[in-house]
Amino acid sequence: MTEPERAVPLGGLKAGQVVRVGDTVCRPVGAWSPIVHALLRHLEEREFDGAPRFVGIDGARREVLTFHPGVLMTEHPDAAADDLLAEVAAVVRAFHAAAADFTPPPGQPRWAGSLDPAGGASVLHGDLAPWNVIVGTDHLTLIDWDDVWVGRIEWEVAYALHTFVPFWPDGLSDRETVRRIRVFADAYGLRDDEMRAALELVPARCRTVGEATRAHAALGDEAFIGFVAQGIDAYWLSSADHVESRLPSWQRALGI
Description:
The chain is an alpha+beta fold. The protein is built from eight helices and ten strands. Strand 2 (19-21) and strand 3 (24-27) form a beta hairpin. The model has no long low-confidence stretch (mean pLDDT 93).
């Protein structure tokens, strides 16, 4: 049986370019790939089980990663459960701990939407969100590591809080938002000052995504042109405004 006959297309931003072949996933490589591959090797050495393993490069010059069965968190029936939110926070913390002594090789970031404008030395996943979490039978797997770069931990935590709590304008009540912030913070092990710093970065983090989406669309990137047509850029920007308006109330309720 030839590979095209047994390759199963997978979705995401690179829909049609990412395929499952047996127990592996084959994906395009880019200028960002050296740091991703080095990090995945490092995480394997640190026995972090929340990421795919880097297998190598195939004959078609694609990266080959281990396939992890399960369902995307966005499609999981318990996606909004506190237990799953706490499990996500614990895995994110474990990743940050495992990557703390990683020295990135030279490379280039994939896109500006995940870049921390203040810089930093911590290695960040760059797109920690329910659409990049596989819920398996016994553990979670973080996928789509193409946005790996360095920055501040609180920049990453800001994004994770926004996408997992979540903070979308048409989402939760203030009371429920505050309660779930605490669930995430307790499971991650955030001190109050760290939580405050991350929360205050959420509006800027959302605006970075919205503005970068528009910028990539303006450059002719078809995927991002589609995102703008769907209003995704505007949704991120309106999320920034929403968080900015509600943040003082959340902070008062959290006592921070």
